[in-house]
Amino acid sequence: MIGNSWDNVLSSEYNEEYFKNLINFIKEEYKQKTIYPPQNKVFNAFRYTDYNKVKVVILGQDPYHGPNQAEGLSFSVSNEVLKPPSLKNIFKELESDLGIPFPKKNSLIPWSKQGVLLLNAVLTVEEHKPTSHKDRGWEIFTDNVIKILNKRETPIVFILWGAYARSKKNLITNPKHLVIESAHPSPFSARNGFFGSKPFSKTNDFLKKNGIMEIDWRVE
What we know:
The protein contains nine helices and six strands, in the order αααβαβααββαβαβα. With 220 residues, the chain is of the alpha/beta class. The strands form two sheets. A four-stranded parallel β-sheet has the order 3-2-5-6. α8 links the parallel β5 and β6. The two termini are 29 Å apart.
């Protein structure tokens, strides 16, 4: 399904009854409605960030639900659309934290290619209906992905922004890993602890301390 080592890691998951039901539901939704991201991009987070290369996980809730936005990566949108407010605030914090100029581009694919798994808890959504595919089985799948990564001996940074992402903290029990948590970058909460939280420098400091190549957080 994915085309890299994730397929071996997740092979038992693919055979679970809940996952088969989920995929059947999603296939029907794509036939009957406008669903995002495009069907060939649903698993992009895994395609761009092979299991063996995961250094960082940034957890989102579900995809953007407007036309041409979602590309299968949490918080990322295609370069052809306007930046959503949360992404703008992420770039503002990046500039404040590391001095990286506010980018013209939107897509976070350059992060993914370096080992940043941009994982939404729910991987699909109906157009203009946020959380419309909640409780259909995606959360079981992505929780299990987090549990699998938690077992890794190589240290990983888990970045949890907002109450929903922070609710997954109980899945990360391995002391080798670092959890960075703060308010969500949305305009409603960014000033309540997201701005000034310095997640990018903290991540790179941790990676460097563990002998892992740091992330170049530029997107262009």
